Amino acid sequence: MELRVLKYFVEAARDENITKAAARLHVSQSSLTRQLHNLEEEIGKKLYTRSNYKINLTPEGLLLKKHAQEMLELEEKILLDFKDLSGDISGVVYIGAGETAGMALIGKILKNLINNYPKIKYRMISADREGVSEKLDRGLIDFGVFVGKVNLAKYNYKILDYADRWGVLVLKDDILALKGFAEPEDLLNRDLLASYQAIAENEFESWLGYEAEKLNIIGLHNLIYNGAVMAREGLGILLTIEGIINTDFNSDFRFVPLKPEINARLALAWKKDAAFSKAAQKFLEFANNI
User: Fold this and answer.
1) Residue range 129-138: average pLDDT?
2) Residue 70: CB partners within 8 Å, gap ≥ 6?
């Protein structure tokens, strides 16, 4: 199975059109069609169907697209990693992270790194906790940034000097905005929106003082921005960390901290058996010096 053919398949799937993909790849339509057909024979599954000049991926095609994208990402990372093995220190640092205002701390590390080694670049991959962990395990990223209660036993990690504050995002005329803080009883009988990770990891179990099943959680999100859009539409108040959504004077929202306060730690993690590029090694050096 050639990476070149997998790239052709991914491009055709992205365009949903073999003719468009062929033109962009600078190959003939007949050649692209033939190579995709050979790929199907090699896989032993039908990967797509054609209708009205459009291709639609089968379930097997969707699975192959996911794996093919990961393989192509890994190929790119390998090539970039080996580019920095000679001469000046260069290369790309790959970082996966969820949503947190604490990324400003990662930004400071990167700024210091690049000021000292101008040929180093970085790639930031945004994902939820599971996505970051999966990419770290597969070697698609060098470092993962995790927020809150996370079991990091299988990684090397550094707890960063930053903590996010948990609270609820409410509309500015909400009663909790006037109160200025939210206590466990304030969440009872309210429609709640929350992140998957907060609920899955029982971030609030001890804080609540009652069973979490009593909360009326009507919506879960892996991206807090989307949760804020739903909150703006009046679906509920959003359990989140501070600083992700704008809450300045002109905003429709106010951030109301939990009382007693709950803070979520920020951790930088990497695989225990990681074989770092020079760029990644330097990033870790700078991270350890903050």
Assistant:
1) 91
2) 138, 140
Domain containing residue 278: CATH number: 3.40.190.10
Are 255 and 272 contained in the same domain?
no
Tokens of 219: 């919506």
Cis before 59 (ω within 30)? no
Q: Are residues 195 and 282 in the same domain?
A: no
Q: Which residues pair with 143 in a beta bridge?
A: 95
pLDDT in tens, 159-177: 999 999 999 999 999 999 9
Separation between Cα atoms, residue 81 and residue 125, nearest integer Å = 17
Q: Which range marks the domain in which residue 149 is found? A: 80-162+266-288
CA dihedral 235, 145, 95, 160 (to 10 degrees): 130
Q: Are residues 9 and 42 in the same domain?
A: yes
Domain count, the chain: 3
Considering the domain architecture, whether residues 247 and 198 belong to the same structural domain is answered as yes
Please report where in the chains the tokens 């790239």 appear, as a residue. Answer: 7
This prediction's pTM: 0.73
Pairing of strands 191-195, 91-97: unpaired
Sole residue written with tokens 């794996």: 67
Phi, psi of 152 (to 5 degrees): -105, 20
Distance CA 243, CA 238 (A): 13
